[in-house]
């Protein structure tokens, strides 16, 4: 073998290996996304069906995401140190750290919903409001699925359209918030259960926010630009007054 | 000038310049920390004193943190690409990205409190509960101040002790949560105001969580190890049932 071919084969080896490193991050993020989606789905099913065993499963699944985030973070730092990636590659690695952090938080939200399902066990729960929560969760789940697609396709366009749709989740959350207040006022015996449902709704709304954060990271990975934050991340319920 | 002294002066120049880059990040994080602390302080003062002008100030100050986070993120990526830092230096830069994200979220929480102060304007607010919120905010503020000290001193030991004290905030939050429920049950006219106070308390509790996250990043910067997550990040109120 000549020196030249030796070097070419070495270079090819390094390139492949680097791609493998990035593929590892992409694969682990996709796995985390799958777990986070399932946790949200199951948390809400456990609420609708009053299924404490399923709630317990969601609570213990959260450890999977905590571990995955830590491992992705460690691997990302190793990749930067070893490979010294530039430009788009560096954005990929930094982006993976950020997305993993958001998905880990989505898991925390789903776990919190599951815990509240256990807390409201046996209390009267207004069917209409539980249906409302179910609908809100469907929207958040769609956002989550689509943003993970946008990530795997590195699509700035998809990322942008996801970000714009967060308003719909906020609007439905705000109307649920008002309904829950009304329900509590009608009968004080509903207060404990409704307060837990209120926090469940808030958790789902925050999952929508995390999907939006991920969309912003995908946009950054794909384009190198940061979307300037003209989107009001805050929910509207903060301004719901007594006269509403 | 000899070649050797030329090189030495070049090396010194590069070193200085790199330190300047890192110092920029440290300085910007300290500034963000200062703004976040002030926002929390003023949000709670505006609640205690029913001061809508101060609430408005907190709401508009949030933009400062959004901008600072974006700028720190951009600078950090530039530093990695240009300087290709290794080991402790790389941890510093990655850590700055993470801490900036947490401080930006602290600003969001303070802004949300300020908005709710505007929403409850003119409603009866239980003095005792507002005092409870004020106390909770003091604890969170102490955590925030100390974790920023731990960051500026790169102290793993301080970081660790801050992380352990988050339990106290969670315990006080849980007792406030119960009191707020009781107050709502006593008189349904309190429900709207108490719900907003409930979310204010939750925001403060989450600021404590962000301080804990930052403590974990400081530990990582200082030691290179990640603290394994044996700390229950979730609040206890998720399990407050009807029998409590």
TrEMBL record, chains A, B:
It is found in: Cytoplasm. Its main location: cytoplasm. Keywords: Cytoplasm, Phosphate transport, Transport. It comes from the Bacteria. Residues 29-117, 134-218 form the PhoU domain. Gene3D superfamilies: Phosphate transport system protein phou homolog 2, domain 2. Homodimer. Plays a role in the regulation of phosphate uptake. Belongs to the PhoU family. This is Phosphate-specific transport system accessory protein PhoU. It comes from Hoeflea poritis. The lineage of its organism: Bacteria, Pseudomonadati, Pseudomonadota, Alphaproteobacteria, Hyphomicrobiales.
């Amino acid at each position: 073998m000549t020196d030249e071919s030796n070097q070419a084969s070495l270079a090819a080896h390094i390139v492949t290996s680097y791609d493998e490193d990035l593929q590892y991050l992409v694969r682990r993020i996709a796995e985390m996304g799958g777990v986070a989606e399932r946790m949200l789905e199951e948390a809400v099913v456990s609420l609708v069906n009053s299924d404490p065993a399923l709630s317990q499963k969601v609570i213990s699944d959260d450890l999977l995401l905590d571990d995955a985030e830590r491992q992705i973070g460690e691997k990302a730092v190793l990749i930067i140190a070893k490979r010294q990636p530039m430009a788009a590659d560096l954005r990929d690695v930094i982006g993976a750290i950020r997305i993993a952090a958001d998905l880990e938080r989505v898991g925390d939200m789903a776990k919190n919903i599951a815990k509240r399902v256990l807390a409201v066990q046996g209390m009267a729960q207004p069917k209409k409001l539980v249906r409302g929560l179910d609908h809100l969760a469907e929207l958040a789940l769609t956002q989550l699925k689509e943003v993970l697609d946008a990530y795997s396709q590195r699509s700035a366009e998809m990322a942008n359209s996801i970000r714009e749709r967060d308003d719909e989740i906020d609007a439905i959350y705000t109307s649920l918030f008002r309904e829950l207040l009304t329900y509590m006022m009608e009968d004080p015996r509903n207060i404990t259960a409704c307060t837990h449902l209120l926090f469940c709704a808030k958790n789902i709304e925050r999952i929508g926010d995390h999907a939006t954060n991920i969309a912003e990271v995908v946009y950054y990975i794909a384009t190198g630009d940061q979307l300037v934050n003209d989107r009001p991340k805050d929910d509207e319920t903060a301004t719901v007054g007594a006269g509403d």
